[in-house]
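ASSEMBLY PREDICTION REQUEST
Request ID: AP-0331
Submitted by: J.K., bench scientist
Number of chains: two
Total residues: 366
Priority: normal
Notes: Please return the full assembly, not individual chains.
Input sequences:
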Amino acid sequence: MTTDDLAGELARAFPGRAGELSRLHERLAAAAQRDGVLDVAYRTIDSPVGPLLLAATELGLIRVAYACEDHDAVLQVLADRISPRILSAPVRLEAATRELGEYFAGRRRRFDLPLDLRLSAGFRRAVLTHLPEIGFGHTASYAAVAQLAGSPRAIRAVGTACATNPLPVVVPCHRVVRSDGSMGGYLGGPDAKRTLLSLEAA
Amino acid sequence: MAGKEPFETVVAAHGGTVLRVCRAVLGLADADDAWSETFVAAMKAYPDLPGDANVEAWLVTIAHRKAIDVTRAAGRRAIPVADVPDTGTADGGREDVPGDLADAVSQLPDRQRQAIAYHYLAGLPYAEVAGILGGSAEAARRAAADGIAKLRRSFAGAGERSSR
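STATUS: Completed
Returned structure:
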């Protein structure tokens, strides 16, 4: 037997298979949580607007991302801006998963989740904190939101705040529409916005 | 600023290799504990790891230390000492009973087993292996070669059968 053969046999003798790793990974996530080093936990859920990435810090939900935002890229931004100590750890996202499920099933009209708004600052953050004032099933114009946020002329900036909302769906930027009643843009794409608005109109 | 990848990616990329290494060095029973402790420790230190570091060598270095800790904590199955499998009788006897390669590896002296795990399973060059074990790269190469020679003697039969 050549050394290469023997190396192959060694690899077979000491396996490290995916199935075994998922159990170990779960243990790692629990230990990291216990030791306070799980800076960002995430999971992916299926939804009527496609797969959504959910990420949370110890403080609360920090990111909801559409597939079109590229989940890997979103995680890399979280690594750069928050911490690279990131693990897939669904346990921390249990409440968010449940509430989003209820929302998409038409059984929840507002979210009651701790939020970590660190990814947003200044006026954009001010806009985000006011968006939940637009209730389920209602819409408001960019101008009206600018007013809510205390800068009536900052209509464009409201658009930017919505377009860079780190917590779409939960922070309802989809309820912001144009003054003429047309839908306007959406970071999750026009189809997602339409889906959410018709879900809330039902 | 250009980023360190999420730790999840590190686990996905190297978790399997580290598990193999833990199993080869410690055996099946204690490998899970060593694996978990390795990755928890690595996750703690990860933000301070230099961006150009060899992540796999870093993880294997941590696993090496954790394996020693686990063995000590277990307080049993003291790390096999060099003279146990070197007595000759074991090698000769195993020829007839090909047995299990994992078992044969567990009979190897410590350094030989570690050198084999780090070089053949983790794929680290002998310079890196030496960095973990101490001593020279040449000494690490020799330890692995001696161990491989023993494995080949004790395992030749089984290897041919299972690679048909």
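REVIEWER COMMENTS: The CA atoms of residues 44 and 53 of chain A lie 4 Å apart.
SIGN-OFF: pending second reviewer
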